[in-house]
Structures are given as structure tokens and as C-alpha cells.
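Researcher: Please translate sequence to C-alpha cells.
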Amino acid sequence: MKYIYMLLICFTFFNCKTDKKESSPIWDENVKDGLPLLNDTITLKDGDLESRVKAISIENKQKQLIEKKDDQETLEGLVLEKSYVVKKDNYVINFRYPQLNESFNSKHSNFNDFINNYYVNISKTESDILQAKAFCDSIESIKFREERFIDYKIYSLNDALISVLFYKENFYSGALFPSYSFDCFNYKLSSSVFMTFADFFIAGAEEELMHVINKTIKSKISKGEMYYECWEISVEDFTKAKNNFVINDTNIEFYFDDCVICPSYTGTYSIEIPLVDLLPLLKKYDTNPLIL
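Model: Translation complete:
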């Protein structure tokens, strides 16, 4: 009986040591500062890391756009900057937009009225916030007080034309990261009218111009100037975005919403084409400010 009792005590002690060993974390002797060795099978940790990497990439991509140089300084006096803020319980909207100085030309009211009545549409932005659905990079629903901003870049072509790029930050329900969408407007100063794709390019130029854009994308990817995750634009997407371009003295730059030519977490928003490469596609009329 004495031996049986001793055996039971040993057995219990052994089990306690075994349980303690199994519950201890696995440590790598080569890891400094006491950091545990990560196990590849922990998918939650991997997902968190991937999300952080994507968040940093998105932040850098958007920062490059926001810090991109435009012609705001050279247009000082002609362009007047306006802004307003809307604060509600579940969202905040910051809107910055340009107006033209009507003391330079009373017809600049055409531009100002259009921007105020058509584009500065706070009700539509509010509707987008309240009704938005999951977008291309949606991961899981998160609750937050949405903060939207709408900002702009402005460019000038030989004092004959101004190009305005509006960029809007969007948060979609079910999406972990914000995305960007774009609107571009080209305004001819001498005649005080807005110009579209059809005013600059010959009839049927869409197919050739899309070919030029896709050729540029493929070339940039092969040279490592553009991420391999990006892709060529489709006919449908180009048709929707063909008026989304800005012009300066040397280039025309087409802007595309997130997930049109690149995923939101990498790549670029725009494709820049030298004007000299587009000469065969331009209308040869005096009313075309690209023909000087």
C-alpha cells in the first residue's frame, strides 16, 4: 500500500510538470529582446500584419497625390480658394474648392455657378456616406465617425485653359481602408466654357487613346515604375473616365478611381501622356487650346 501511494504522488507530480510545459510559449533563442517566435499557422496575426502593410501603402499613395505640385501659386489672384466644413453626429465633411475672380472677367461666373450648383453638392456626399456599400477591398465592417474630405489640384495651359482635379476620399461600409474617386473639369478662359473629351480629340479617338494608355501601363510595369498588381484599363472603364483628365503645358494626365487600373492599396491613380504623343489625335481647330 505504501508503494502504491508513492507511485500515485509521482504520477500526479509528473502530470503537473507536463501540463506546465505544454502551456508555456515557444521561444526562439535567436530572437532578441525576448520576442516570441511567430507561428505561420496563426492566420489572425498574418491578417493583421497584411492589413497594416496595406494601410501604410495606401497612406503613402494618397500622400503622393496630396503633395503633388500644381499651378496654384502661378494662378494666384485669378483663382480664389473656398472651403466649408459640415459636422454631423456620425460624419464630418471637409470641402475645399476653387472659384475664379470675376473682377478679371465677369463671364467667370459661368465657372463659379457650375462649381457651386453642380459640384458642390453636399446632399449627394451625405447620401453617399449613409448609403455606401462594400467596395473592392472590403474586409470587415467597422464602426467609426466618418471623416470625408474633397480637395482639388489646379493646372494651367498657356493662360488659355485651366484644369481642375477634384479628389474625394470615400469610406465604404464594410471596407477597412478609404478609397479615392476623381472628377476633372477643363475650362477655356477666353470663351468662358467648359470643354470635354470631344472638344479636344478627333472623332473615334477613344480606341487609339486607350491603346496609348495601356501601352504606357505595360511599359511602366515592365520597367518596374509601376506595380505588377496593376492592370490595363478596360473599354467600359475608359469610356466612363475619358473626361477625367487635366492638362498642363507638356502633358495630359488621365485619372482613374481606385480599383480601375490598380488596387487601392498600391500603384497609382493616374497615367500621364506627353502632348506630343497625342498630336495625331487632336482636333486641328483654333477653338482647341491644345493647338497653339
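Researcher: Any highlights?
Model: The chain has one domain: 47-281.
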